[in-house]
Amino acid sequence: MNATVALLFAALMIHGVRPGPMLIAEHPEVFWGIVASMYIGNVMLLILNLPLIGIWVKVLKIPYRIIFPMIVLFCIIGVYAINRAILDLALMLGFGVLGYLMRKFDFDPAPLCLAFILGPLLEVAMRQALLLSQGNFTIFFTRPLSAVCLGIAALLLLTNLISFRKSKKAKAGEQV
Asked: Of 37, 109, 148, 162, which is the most buried if we count CB atoms within 10 A?
């Protein structure tokens, strides 16, 4: 899964459509609407981009030091124009810094998007489990399936940390 699919899932869930294998059966109008919009979008791209190829090539030749501030300016204007709120600007800048740090440290954005989508569902399920166990957190370890899932998650986290430390030591050894 990539970030585009995660954002598409999030958009569907915002509109009350549950993505999954039953999407076509439960909401055929949404599914076929998405397919039709993709066809229409591709035709529009052909119609617009073929005559404008020369302009796009010239835009690509603009130096980064010139185009980057223009992109940031347009983003700031767009975000402020929607609600005229400084909080929106702060959120945009904060998420921009978060995105920069994620790219700098080679984090994939798809898991973060997926966490935003699945987080509320997992929170509801955790509350239900804690209500059934009367607030006892050991329910997550005593059930075989949940214990296996938590063990696998811990193992994956440890392997990630170990490989990160090894790559950090290897980079430090190369610099010496």
From this structure: 109
